[in-house]
């Protein structure tokens, strides 16, 4: 954050510059992400909306370096993390996390709820066993999971509780930025609202920045500060949520 002309200006937490991801398919190249640019400030949500296959999920994975970018830059908290060294990846994983669409597919069925939430803390190696147990209980409480579910397994819980496990795991390392990849699309409508409100509460409490990926316009309008519309790997429009819904400029939007 800096000051200019007496006004307080907020530096972007995340800056994506001309980001591209191409895949070779047969004899041609698929431009899954094709020259995306945006900035995201701390505590804000960028909704990324578009039809299936538009590149929105791939964009999130490239930003998190789960997929290697073809070109472009990812600047996070003032540091270029486009091509992080192995030693930097661990730090990157602490700062940037993801909540997946299908909580059941993304959770290890052989691990209990508490083991799933503990895993990133154990791998980080900064806390004692007692501290990890204590932090796991705190995380479960934070996301609204009763401690009695700690010894349960994912298949024993409903979709809403499974997604709360995913949220707790994403929070474990105290990140600043979370990619929410269609986190409520596999849930019943009544449960969707609970998870969205949980994400908003966590954002307010921890100052989290979200990139919220969805195809659901009502959801993206409710949770987003700004919305980016993607089509065939490109951003065809980006605007504040209210403005985009009131006065869309691009025909596709």
Helix content: 25-40%
* Element order: H for helix, E for strand: EEEEEHEEHEHHHHEHEHEEH
What is the count of β-strands?
12
CATH-defined superfamily of the largest domain: P-loop containing nucleotide triphosphate hydrolases
Total helices: the number is 9
Give the overall average pLDDT.
Answer: 91
The shape, in one word, is: globular
Strand content: 25-35%
Q: CATH class of the largest domain, anyone?
A: Alpha Beta
CATH topology (fold) name of the largest domain = Rossmann fold
Q: Nearest-angstrom radius of gyration?
A: 19 Å
- The stretches of 5 or more residues where confidence is low (pLDDT under 50) are 1-8
Please name the CATH architecture of the largest domain.
Answer: 3-Layer(aba) Sandwich
The structural domain count equals: 2
Largest sheet: 6 strands, mixed
The secondary structure category is: alpha/beta
In whole angstroms, how far apart are the ends?
33 Å
Largest beta sheet: strand ordering? 8-9-10-5-11-12
């Amino acid at each position: 954050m800096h000051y200019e002309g007496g006004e307080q200006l907020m530096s972007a937490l995340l800056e994506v510059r001309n980001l591209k991801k191409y895949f070779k398919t047969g004899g041609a190249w698929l431009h899954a992400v094709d020259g995306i640019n945006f900035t995201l400030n701390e505590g804000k949500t960028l909704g990324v909306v578009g039809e299936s296959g538009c590149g929105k999920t791939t964009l999130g994975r490239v930003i998190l370096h789960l997929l290697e970018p073809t070109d472009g830059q990812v600047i996070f908290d003032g540091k270029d993390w486009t091509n992080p060294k192995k030693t930097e990846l661990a730090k990157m994983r602490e700062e940037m996390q993801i909540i997946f669409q299908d909580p059941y597919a993304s959770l290890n069925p052989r691990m209990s709820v508490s083991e799933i939430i503990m895993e990133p803390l154990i791998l980080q190696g900064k806390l004692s066993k007692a501290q990890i147990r204590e932090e796991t209980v705190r995380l479960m409480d934070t996301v609204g999971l009763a401690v009695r579910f700690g010894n349960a397994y994912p298949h024993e819980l409903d979709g809403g509780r499974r997604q709360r496990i995913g949220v707790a795991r994403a929070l474990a390392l105290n990140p600043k930025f979370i990619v929410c990849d269609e986190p409520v699309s596999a849930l019943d409508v009544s449960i969707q609202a609970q998870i969205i409100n949980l994400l908003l509460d966590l954002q307010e409490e921890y100052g989290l920045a979200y990139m919220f990926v969805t195809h659901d316009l009502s959801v993206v309008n409710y949770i987003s500060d700004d919305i980016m519309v993607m089509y065939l790997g490109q951003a065809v429009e980006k605007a504040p949520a209210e403005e985009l819904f009131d006065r869309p400029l691009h025909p596709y939007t």
